[in-house]
Amino acid sequence: MLRSVGVTAILLASATPACAQRAGENAVASAQDAFGTSVGNERVGLYFPQSARGFNPVQAGNVRINGLYFDYQTDLNERLISGSNVRVGLTAQGYPFPAPTGVADFSLRLPGSVAVASTVVTVGPYGGSGVEIDAQLPVSGTLGLAAGVSLTDEELYHGGDRRDFTAAAVARWRPNDDLEVIPFWSRQESSRGEAQPVIFTAGAYLPPRIERRRYFGPEWAQSDSRGVNYGLLTTFSSGGWTLRGSAFRSINDNLRLFSPFFLNSSPDGEADRVVTYEQGRRFASTSGELRLTRRFAEGDRLHLVHLMTRGRKQHRRYGGSQRFDLGRGRIDEPILAPEPALQQGQQTTDEVRQLTAGLGYEGRWRGVGELSLGVQRTVYEKAVVRPSGPLPVSKSSPWLFNGTVSILAGSDLVVYAGYSKGLEESPAAPDIAVNRGEAPPAIITAQMDAGFRLNLSPSLRLVAGVFDVRKPYFALDPARVFRELGERRNRGLEVSLAGQITPRLSLVLGAVYLDATVSGDAVNLGLIGRRPVGSIARSLNAAANWNVPWVKGLSLDLTYEGTSDRVANAANTFVIPARFASAIGGRYRFELMDKPATFRAQLASWNNAYGFNNAGGEGFYYNLPRRFQMSLTVDM
Fold first, then answer.
1. pTM
2. Pseudo-torsion of CA 257, 262, 264, 270, nearest 10°?
């Protein structure tokens, strides 16, 4: 029988399980594929909400909360969210209106029918520590509440410190089987955050190897930020009709934002030391969706017709930063300059208004296959006001289309193909750019993909597919102006093997081969190379979880992540070498005073490989060193 997990998840949102109990969280055991799953504090798979097929679903504006559109401006913290999944290829076919860059779908931490309080105490990594408390309370047979708080003192991998506070509350009201109402609120605050300096070399070479776990920025460059998300989701069903609606508000305030840089670094590590400061950067958005679905059956065929409208109003304030030149010095020595006088300059504001209407159809024929079609018309408008005056208003109102088909080619084999065209957000200019923080207007993107899913056993699935994603390419030009430099085309092959090898052994194995290219005048004129900065041709991600047979409650886990060379600069004249990182860990489930408990320990990057990552275009920062972390979770 052909299953459609995505459709079920959207239409039956009220069936989303409650997730307050945390002692049983295990990302490897929960993953249905290798395309990106997070559960609680753990993540497994090739992709995650900020990275899929070489692009960023969150940045592109392709975020959902329980399947409904959300204009993400600040983090959805773990007190609010029980986990997330990245939907690409066949795993995205259950969504009525898929997005070319992929969809990042977050699941709220919903209250259940049993009163539970879960406490997680964490030590590490490095010298950090934290405590998390999540609770759920069934107030009545129709109303449940869930809430949580956490406080973490982090020692960051680059030697800096930061304190994080998060809180959230969710209510779930189900007066009858037809109606569900879910309001939520969350807040996070980050204080005394010391950012890792980003290194820009003066030529086609990597920075020299420097000591890790030591902070080289100035002590006074400590950033403070806060974020708030709140909203309401409703579902009403009657007969064959389902009406889903949502309204969300997302606010991100950078109260103080410091960015340290080492510019024009020499091969031996001498560089110009620069710190930029910005105050009052604020991104905020109101968004929502209304979707009416008619569901009717015709023998072995099930038909769903969707009528949808979604919109957003986004306001951003940024710029006016100060730049402090602190002289030339070594990149492996702390900046000891005194704190300068801080003064915020005039800022730029921009406002986006977007309204989209769509009509979609899904057909499922038992034993045959599925068909999904959709058409949308979106009206987009962006107004930018710089200190020097307003810019011309950018407007766009394209028609967008999507279509997918999957065919049951055998009792355990499904083949699929799809096409989608979208209007997605373009990336914002990095902090090193001359036009720091500026976000170009939305861009037209398109994707084609095809592949198959094979059930190797009732509990083990193989998924493989090819994809071709195209969108305008934005990057830093030689003058460090962030602008459109051509078209980016990401073609690739992705493979997922996930499930239970044996009743005691779970495996999540993913691999992707990516052929990322850039074309256009900037390439033809030799300003940039044909490979985008930061692109990685080959990635392999594997995770295994084994329940030890001779010790009840004990499981061991192993993860591996390997990447090939990544492009280091726009001219494509050198690369960051290939490397891998691996982690070993275990969890022991037991009872503590008759309450379910789990002790978790993990040694990550045990091989302590040294390397660099891309940042802000042609910048570099070193990768995470070896680290150990342990936690105790108790459900009370």
1. 0.92
2. 160
